[in-house]
Specification:
alpha/beta, 972 residues, single chain
Length: 972
């Protein structure tokens, strides 16, 4: 295979926008204007003196304010440097201000020394430290030593030259005091130190804020240059404020004021770790930065300058000053020490490089993955030794061969397409890619012409490609096995429900017109539960395996048998083109009866004969029937066979849909009752066990019969179902929607009336996933009635294992994001509640009333309930106990940490009038001690019951306690 051309090169994207032109123009105009004014004397000596003193003071204070403002706004690691530059500029501003005070305000000669001299002396130290902050910090001790030696090499050479040219005359100048002589030497020496730091750190500056650092270094260099000119005796004797020399100081201050803001305009405010990779990408391969070369040569150039200066004085016959001689010797000594340190450092680096190279070679040669480097032409230039173990071919054999000759022909086109796409993409957008193909194996692995599944990570390398390949043959086989396991039953290896449904769909939707006699057989083993209960589950599994084997052997090759789950099997019998209805029914019935007889024969398990029967339902793929309808019809026929006595075959008949029709009729009755207002809503207070305060109300739907008696919705459905009530969530969907709508509407009305109590509505998990209860739908409902979202609590009333927890979790998270609180009802009633607590976002835990009924009498139940409440407390959730009917239960639950309760100990479900009257008091009496008399409570009717002829508070006793969720069913 030939690699398609060279890599596409793209110019690097600019780091940011170019610097603004307007600030640069303003800076140039200010500096140029000041220079023109200084060159022409400002028109008068008074103006020249003012501009030469207070003008420089203003520029220095402007630089101090600019650097300080930037350091305050930008929290970068260079913030101390800009603060130091601000302090340095402030010292210069104070010095010029003092100078102007003497010259301009008082009109006298500036004394020497004075306060201005000390301010000017304090200009250099903060600037020197600031340059140290801007520079790259050495990471080793040797680096710090070399930095110090480099600085002294530069400073020593400058001291040698300066001393020979001017400083010696200044030091021996007669007629000056010690302080004046010290000041005369301090200015140039500090400038020499500052220049040394500028030169030593110029090539060591950080790559971050490069433009700002360059501008700051240029400003300090300009200032030092002007200081050096001012320090010369000839120029200083004739210096007057406002001359052209002041223009250099003014420009230096203005550049320093502009310096910190250059980074923002140049778009260089990025982390150092982001700039370095970009610099590495732009730098051509094999090139060396010029800045690095100059930085390495700077100390040696400084030492050469120092040596040449001394040799020049010797050759000219001039006497060498002791200071020059001492300084030159220290420079040479520093150079020798630095060279020794560099030699030791180079030896260490060479050893580390050799060690890393050996380590890298060991990693490549010892890696279990095969590393191959392919040239742009597709020829392999390098193959690691791991090829012998992975491919069964020696690395020397593969080097020089075409990669295309090693890839399976069916995979070659896909590999070439992926390689071309990868090379056409930008390296920064897609640094690597993955390719999976079949690779020719050697005789050591496959005996000749075998193929291995290979996965390769591909990287670019000098126009070619690097392949990091590994053998994934076992993984591919495992994936195939996993796919088989996903579509087959793990116990019997028969197709599972998903694969069987897929095959039924293919048979129904893709059959010919003559294949309408295709049938589905739904099979159930009668008596299988008794086998599990008497012999054990292991024997039951063995029975299922034998039954599956019999079923698979009994169907034809073109048919398919499957295990749907448990002891339920199915078979898809394809048609033979028979159009006669009686003939096809006879044929399928004969096949089903043969299967029934075969499956009903004794099974030999653990040395004993085990007998089970088989009930089979048959449904034909009549025109117009859907795959799901076909399976449903066969299921209905199987249940009819079991109801008819088991161990028989039943054909599906349309009359079996009567049950479905009856359920639809019951749903119509429910809808009519809702439309006629036969349902009403009661609310039961949720009371805080600590103080008796009503914190919420729970909504309960009730059906009012013709006699005016209130019944629960479950009892209404049981009566309508003539005693054959089964759980059918579809029938209660409209009732749940009505209950939620009515609860929100009444809660909003109570809020407007001054009773801001949240309302809790109990809904099933299946109902919470309905489209009507989407977050947008709930938000629209709350907005329409004007109820705050925090005033609605949705209680998850069941834990159906068929409901996917992932979907339910996403729905509840979205509802909580609106502000709606979520409660878990019936907590502690089964393992599903614990699973829901682990996965679902829950705010409130509502204990099942089964835990509350015996919490006082049963020590075991007491410990269980206390543990569950401790879980709720540890998770930061509120806990509500359902069915709190006795004061003793209140005391026990409160001692366990339960925060809220609801039940007959406080109140039963109330209508709206009694509820508002109860909310007006907002408190219920809560017992404090076990021996305390029972308080008066409100029953479901809202009235206490008098006992006998006693009077007073003690005469009010509880009515006979009964469940608030169940009532007796009237005769029909």
């Amino acid at each position: 295979m030939s690699a398609p051309g060279t890599m596409l090169s793209r110019p690097p994207a600019p780091a940011g926008n170019p610097p603004g032109v307007v600030p640069q123009i303003v800076l140039a105009v200010l500096c140029g204007g000041y220079a023109v004014g200084a060159a022409f004397g400002w028109g008068s000596p008074e103006v020249a003196a003012f501009m030469g003193d207070f003008g420089l003071s203003f520029a220095a204070f402007l630089a101090a304010f600019s650097c300080g403002l930037y350091a305050r706004k930008r929290r970068t690691r260079f913030r101390p440097a800009w603060m130091l530059f601000a302090a340095s500029s402030a010292m210069a501003g104070f010095g010029n201000g003092v100078w102007g005070w003497y010259e301009v305000v008082q009109g006298t000669t500036v004394p020497s020394p004075c306060l201005a001299d000390f301010c000017f002396l304090l200009f250099a130290p903060p600037a020197i430290v600031g340059l140290l902050v801007l520079a790259k910090r050495p990471v080793t001790r040797a680096g710090w030593v070399c930095l110090g030696l480099d600085s002294w090499l530069i400073a020593g050479s400058l001291v040698t030259l300066s001393w020979s040219l001017a400083l010696a005359h200044t030091a021996h100048f007669q007629g000056r005091s010690v302080a004046q002589s010290a000041l005369s030497l301090a200015y140039p020496l500090l400038d020499i130190v500052l220049v040394s730091m500028v030169l030593a750190l110029h090539f060591r500056r950080s790559s971050v804020h490069r433009s700002a650092v360059n501008t700051a270094v240029a400003a300090l260099a300009l200032t030092v240059l002007c200081d050096a000119l001012f320090s010369s005796p000839l120029l200083r004797e004739h210096y007057r404020s406002g001359q052209i020399l002041d223009a250099g100081w003014f420009a230096g201050s203005m550049l320093l004021a502009y310096a910190p803001w250059v980074a923002r305009r140049a778009g260089e405010e990025c982390p150092e770790e982001d700039v370095k990779p970009a610099a590495r990408r732009v730098q051509p391969h094999g090139s060396r930065p010029i800045a690095g070369s100059l930085a390495a040569l700077t100390p040696y150039l400084a030492a050469a300058v120092c040596t040449l200066g001394i040799l020049t004085n010797v050759l000219d016959g001039r006497r060498i000053d002791r200071v020059v001689l001492f300084t030159g010797c220290t420079v040479v000594l520093a150079l020798v020490v630095r060279q020794g340190i560099m030699l030791l450092d180079n030896i260490t680096l060479t050893q580390e490089l050799a060690q890393k190279e050996n380590h890298f070679r060991s990693l490549v040669q010892g890696s279990s993955d095969v590393i191959m480097i392919a040239a742009p032409t597709g020829v392999l230039r390098y193959v690691s030794p791991a090829a012998a173990g992975v491919y069964g071919r020696d690395a020397e054999e593969l080097v020089g061969s075409e990669l295309a000759s090693l890839i399976h022909p069916e995979d070659l086109g896909r590999v070439v397409h992926e390689v071309r796409r990868f090379l056409a993409a930008a390296p920064e957008d897609e640094p690597t890619t993955r390719i999976e193909c079949r690779f020719r194996a050697g005789e050591q692995r496959s005996g000749g012409d075998g193929w291995l599944n290979v996965e390769s990570t591909v990287n670019r390398h000098h126009g070619g490609l690097i392949f990091n390949s590994r053998d994934v043959t076992e993984r591919v086989r495992l994936q195939a096995q996993l796919q088989h396991n996903a579509s087959h039953d793990a116990l019997t290896d028969l197709p599972n429900r998903a694969l069987f449904t897929e095959r039924v769909t293919q048979a129904v939707t893709g059959r010919r017109a003559s294949d309408h006699d295709t049938a589905v057989l739904y099979i159930d083993l009668d008596g299988f539960k008794q086998v599990n209960d008497t012999i054990g589950h292991q024997a039951g599994d063995e029975l299922l395996v034998q039954a599956a084997r019999r079923l698979g052997d009994s169907v034809r090759s073109g048919d398919i048998a499957a295990r749907l789950g448990g002891d339920e099997f199915a078979a898809l019998i394809t048609g033979d083109g028979t159009r006669d209805r009686a003939a096809r029914e006879f044929r399928i019935h004969e096949i089903a009866d043969r299967l029934r007889i075969k499956l009903s024969e004794p099974y030999r398990i653990d040395g004993r004969d085990v007998r089970v029967a088989a009930s089979i339902g048959v449904a034909f793929a009549d025109p117009g029937v859907s795959p799901a309808g076909l399976l449903r019809n066969a299921d209905l026929a199987m249940y009819r066979a079991k109801q008819a006595g088991k161990g028989r075959v039943e054909l599906y008949a349309p009359q079996m849909q009567s049950e479905v029709a009856h359920r639809a009729e019951l749903a119509t009755k429910l809808r009519t009752a809702l439309h006629d207002g036969a349902f009403t809503l009661l609310h039961q207070p949720v009371v805080e066990l600590a103080g008796g305060r009503v914190t919420a109300v729970a909504a309960h739907a009730r059906w009012r019969s013709a006699q005016g008696i209130l019944f629960t919705p479950a009892e209404f459905l049981r009566v309508g179902d003539r005693g054959r009530f089964t759980d059918d969530g579809e029938r209660t969907a409209e009732l749940d929607r009505w209950q939620l709508e009515a609860a929100v509407e009444q809660a909003a009305a109570r809020h407007r009336a001054g009773y801001p109590v949240p309302v809790a509505v109990r809904l099933s998990a299946r109902r919470l996933l309905d489209h009507a209860l989407s977050p947008k739908g709930v938000e629209s409902l709350l907005t329409r009635h004007g109820l705050p979202s925090r005033a609605l609590v949705l209680e998850l009333s069941d834990s159906d294992s068929r409901i996917p927890l992932d979907d339910l979790e996403r729905r509840l998270v979205a509802l909580r994001r609106l502000g709606v609180r979520i409660a878990l009802d019936g907590f502690g009633s089964g393992y599903a509640a614990i699973s829901a607590l682990r996965r679902l976002p829950v705010d409130v835990l509502r204990l099942d009333r089964g835990l509350v009924d015996g919490v006082v009498e049963s020590a075991r139940l007491h410990k269980i309930t206390a543990g569950l409440l401790r879980i709720a407390g540890d998770l930061g959730m509120q806990s509500v106990a359902d069915g709190v009917d006795l004061p003793e239960q209140v005391l026990a639950l409160r001692s366990m940490g339960c925060t809220h309760g609801m039940g007959m100990a406080f109140s039963g479900p109330l209508d709206e009038h009694r509820l508002r009257r109860s909310l007006t008091h907002a408190h219920y009496p809560v017992p404090d001690l076990p021996g305390q008399s029972r308080a008066v409570v409100l029953t479901g009717s809202g009235l206490p019951v008098r006992h006998g002829g006693l009077t007073g508070p003690d005469s009010l006793m509880h009515p006979p306690l009964r469940s608030n969720s169940e009532t007796s069913v009237p005769p029909t």
